[in-house]
Amino acid sequence: MHRRFDIATRGPGLTEFTRDVAAWVDGASAEEALLTLFVRHTSCSLLIQENADPEVRSDLAAFFHRLVPPSDDPAMSYLTHTYEGPDDMPGHIKSALLPSSLQIPVIDGRMVLGTWQGIYLFEHRSAPHRREVIGLLR
């Protein structure tokens, strides 16, 4: 069984979509399965991360911005792929460092996530985007 999740982002940062995935898994009647999520883009990533304190999300976004600043930052002058804007190549670098897919066990019909874990799309581009994540339940 599969499903497409369309996720609207507001620019850089983490967008949680745990509830959408959980509702789909709950309705699938799969007692034991493996859920795979895959993002079909090259300048965003998927993460399982804490969903209790929003400072975790803002700190992660700030860290990756410092780690890989926009291409108009002097530290990034070595980049050659710059014609799609100063956030494009840094977005590709961040997505190379972070996962494009996740696997989550499903037991007794529910995702086996920890108490404070949530599923996030991590947008690396500056402008809002519509991102597509494919879920496969087997």
Describe this entry's structure for a reader.
It is a single chain. By secondary structure, the chain is an alpha+beta fold. The protein is 25% helix and 36% strand. The chain has 3 helices and 8 strands; from the N terminus they run ββαββααββββ. The chain has helices spanning 18-28, 54-67, 88-97; strands at residues 2-8, 13-16, 32-39, 44-50, 101-107, 110-111, 117-123, 130-137. A 5-stranded antiparallel beta sheet has the order 1-8-3-5-6, with helices on one face. A hairpin with a 2-residue loop joins β5 and β6. The longest helix is centred in the middle third of the chain and has 14 residues, at 54-67. The protein is elongated. The model has no long low-confidence stretch (mean pLDDT 97).
Helicity, as a percent range? 25-40%
Instruction: List the uncertain runs.
Output: none
Radius of gyration: 16 Å
* Beta fraction: 35-45%
The end-to-end distance, rounded to whole angstroms, is 7 Å
Order of helices and strands: EEHEEHHEEEE
Sheet having the most strands: 5 strands, antiparallel
Rounded mean pLDDT is 97
Structural class: alpha+beta
DSSP strand tally:
8
> What coarse outline follows from CA principal-axis ratios?
elongated
How many distinct helices?
3
Strand order in the sheet with the most strands: 1-8-3-5-6
